[in-house]
Amino acid sequence: MPLEFEKPILELERRIQELKETAKATGVDLQAEIRLLEERLAQLKKETYGNLTPWQRVQLARAQGRPTTLDVLEKAFQDFLELHGDRAFADDPAIVGGLAYLEGEKVVVVGHQKGRDTKENLQRNFGMPHPEGYRKAMRLMDLADRFGYPFLTFVDTPGAYPGVSAEERGQAWVIAQSIQRMSRLRVPAVTVILGEGGSGGALAIAVANRVLILENAWYSVISPESCAAILWRDAKEAPKAAEALKLTAKDLLAQKVVDAVIPEPEGGAHKDPDRAIQNLKEALLKTLEELKGLSPEALYQDRYRRFRRLGAYAEP
Amino acid sequence: MALERLFRRKRPSGGGRDVPELWTKCEACGAQIYKKEFQENLHVCPKCGHHHRMPAEERVAMLADPGTFQETTRLRPLDPLGFVDTKPYAERLKAYQGETGRPDAILGGTCAIGGVPAVLLVMDYAFAGGSMGSVVGEEIARGAERAAEEGRALVIVAASGGARMQEAALSLMQMAKTVMSLDLLWGKRLPYVSVLTDPTTGGVTASFAALADVIFAEPGALIGFAGPRVIRQTIRQELPEGFQRAEFLLKHGMVDRVTDRRRLKREVVQALRHLHPGVPYAPGV
What residues does the CoA carboxyltransferase N-terminal domain cover (chain B) (predicted)? Predict the structure, then answer.
């Protein structure tokens, strides 16, 4: 489904295609017209994608076909072995994880998993985990610590599931525990915000030594819609909320909430997922290299300091 | 402050029209309660036992041993994102500061609680719904650091709608910061007791508040991750009776005790004395 702000681009692309077909079918030389339109298209794309509003980026972060955790694990990693279940209650399909190699290095991976179509989205609860998902993540953190392998996470959730069952099973408690468990890792931990970084449900698996973010992903304390519903009393003001929340990759870099931005292909990661995943892989390898020399204790201290300094306040 | 007290003391002599102000009404059962009695009863209705929200200063007075409290919370909030919704955040802050006389949503300091040296931090729901922004997060981290440094227990009374939206990702980061600062207490075997009061939700429940060694909740307090309104919107049906109340959390294993406010200090002291390695055996103190 095309995004609203992309419609002029798609319209122009359609017209170019039509002209090309007409030229082919009739033999009429339309080269000049086609070139003119193509130039206009390039210009339009540059204008549109070069000046994306925060709300447009939020839409790109949710676009169909954007790489999910499993896409990344398939394409950037080797021999992914998915491990299921929290050993207590259930297996949560909204969080996936397991063992893999990254360029020959053994790693433990965890990520939110959205569906790639409506049916899968229902099964995966739109990437909104229940407590059992976070317990699975914590179990895999234990595994990474026990064997000394780097722990990598991929964040893509609108938020932890706000429902009766989740509350009954202690959603707040497991999020707190997962934050604590991850902060205590004695191995290198790296997080990539893939798409949506919605609140505590995202942070629960994002307490890493380095947090990277894809160019059009967002990360904040609340989704723009919910923020608008509360502060503007109207979810339709989400574009304004997206602006106010300063939730884009560039804004987050300035706030030091993230450490680096991974570039996406023009028009978003879903336009060329392989390219996006390649960029992501390069950034991950570089980041892991940076953390390589640190001892287990130094890794813990590094993470502690990273989060300890975040915030803005004035001394009296 | 002194002037205000003088002013207040004079008013009752003013005549009949001031009489209603001596009384307050229970939010739950509607009973008329003599204000002085209500306060002495720690804002608990003497008729039905309903626990009303309580000002932060009175919380401190109720938990700290008399004369021991030394305030340490003085950080002032900034508006790092220049956040504007229907009103600028900077203006909202000023209004809250005016109403509460406090720079942000937390009041804390050092004190003794039942003789146990402690850092006591009380969240103030009256200030921006007790929301956690950079100041609250930093004060909690510093409180934990101070407790670890000085061998004190940590007691936090939570009352919060969650993270502060106007500080966006920075307030989210306070969840990680506060949780990590608790490690200092772990390393030194110092006790951390948390008291969940009405309401405690969102990023506060889902960070430091849920990670105490002993967790108390006040009767009837709303406690959870998502607020009931959000859940109702998600599942599109009415929520079960008593859902997300303290008693519900006790039943589901999330809190250690649901304790009547009038017994709360005694039980907090008990927990602190049991846990604090520096306090000798002294049952029933």
Answer: 22-285
